[in-house]
Design a protein that fits this description.
heterodimer, A: 246 residues, alpha+beta, five-stranded mixed β-sheet, three-stranded antiparallel β-sheet, 5 helices, 43% helix, rod-shaped, B: 140 residues, 21% strand
């Protein structure tokens, strides 16, 4: 080997080593990256805001569903939109053709139907609401929007109905009172005029109730609630009949 | 010195020596820059008026209705005059710049109220009687 080649070879060798070293240092520095502060806090605030938006939507949906349900129950004499009752001049006739009369159950059924309608039009998928005595729960709501935080990837939430929106603003007792008083009437094929008058007077004891008699039909009006009772027909049963089989 | 040796040093040795020198100096400068450069600190800023939007929507306009109800009524009747007036009245004594825009879910603009030159930085979904609408908001 020529002696003169030693120095150039050393130069090339040094160059290769230092380039490799520079690359390693640059790569390590790049990986370290710049320091970004506040990302986690922003992620948490975004998470909170997403929850607030959803909570607001559900509050509003519950409020609208209550209003719609109230309207539907009024138009259907305490029954839900889908019922078997017959109507006369657009007013429901309370008789055995109707299902059993349970206004609380009818309310829950209709309210759930209305609420699901709103849940379905929300841009992201929400779980089906669970309606209990005085609250509506949406369990494990999954947010689709990615929250800007390396720490938070997915999360779920439980929504409970706002205390300000209470079911008590709907007065279901009016239907119950009218039904209870009408139950005291001896409605039958052979009802006498005296018995009918006695029944009318009893029904008038329910506050704000007006009665109009049209032959066998009694048209009961209480605020916006309208009901027809045929004095020769029995009222709907109060509860689902139990069938006992051997 | 041997003539052949002198030739080798002149042709290979001297440039190689300077190459080594240049490489070492460049590397030293590079190392000095990399080691002394401080990391850049970025602070993420939040531009989001979600809470302000929710507060606005919950603001009562009378004993029974809120701005959310008024928006619903305006969309259902396609009459935004009252909404425009009441919103302007709400912000007239403040120095806030605001914009409220209402969209269908398929992004069709229904109404824009307030400062036209700003860009909303938050939006939420509002249920109406038979559909959901998007309300976008800016307040600064």
């Amino acid at each position: 080997m020529k002696k003169g080649i030693f120095v150039p070879a050393l130069a090339v060798f040094t160059l290769i080593i230092l380039v490799a070293l520079s690359y390693t240092i640059t790569y390590a520095e790049d990986k370290k990256g710049d320091v970004v502060t506040g990302k986690t806090s922003i992620g948490l605030i975004n998470l909170y805001n997403e929850g607030e938006k959803l909570s607001f939507y559900l509050d509003e949906a519950v409020k609208l569903s209550l209003r719609n349900t109230e309207e539907i129950l009024k138009n259907n004499a305490g029954y839900s939109k889908v019922n078997n009752c017959k109507k006369q001049n657009g007013i429901i006739i309370w008789n055995r053709e109707c299902d059993y009369f349970n206004v609380d159950e009818n309310f829950n059924k209709q309210f759930k139907e209305e609420l699901i309608k709103y849940v379905k039009v929300y841009p992201q998928q929400l779980p089906e609401p669970i309606i209990t005595d005085n609250k509506v729960e949406f369990r494990n709501i999954k947010f689709q929007k990615q929250i800007i935080s390396p720490l938070i990837k997915t999360f779920s939430a439980e929504y409970k109905i706002n205390e300000e929106i209470e079911f008590t603003e709907l007065n279901l007792d009016i239907y119950k009172n009218i039904y209870y008083v009408a139950q005291q009437c001896d409605l039958k094929q052979a009802i006498t005029n005296n018995e009918i008058n006695y029944c009318i007077n009893n029904l008038k004891t329910v506050p704000n109730t007006k009665i109009t008699r049209n032959q066998d039909n009694l048209e009961i009006i209480n605020n916006d609630i309208k009901i027809i009772i045929n004095v020769k027909e029995k009222l709907p049963l109060p509860k689902k009949s139990i069938t006992i089989t051997e | 010195m041997h003539k052949k040796g002198q030739f080798d040093v002149a042709v290979f040795g001297v440039p190689a020596f300077f190459l080594i020198l240049l490489t070492l100096v460049s590397f030293s400068i590079y190392l000095a820059i990399v080691i002394t450069s401080a990391p850049i600190i970025d602070v993420v800023e939040l531009e989001d008026d979600t809470i302000e939007l929710i507060n606005y929507l919950k603001t009562p306009i009378n004993s029974q209705e809120t701005f959310a109800d008024l928006i619903r009524k305006s969309v259902e009747t396609n009459d935004f005059l009252e909404l425009n007036d009441k919103t302007n009245e709400l912000f007239k004594d403040t120095n806030f710049r605001y914009q409220l825009s209402i969209y269908e879910q398929n992004n069709i603009l229904l109404k824009k109220i307030g400062d036209q030159g700003v860009k909303p930085n938050t939006e939420l979904v509002l249920p109406t009687k038979d559909k959901a609408i998007i309300v976008k908001f800016y307040l600064k």
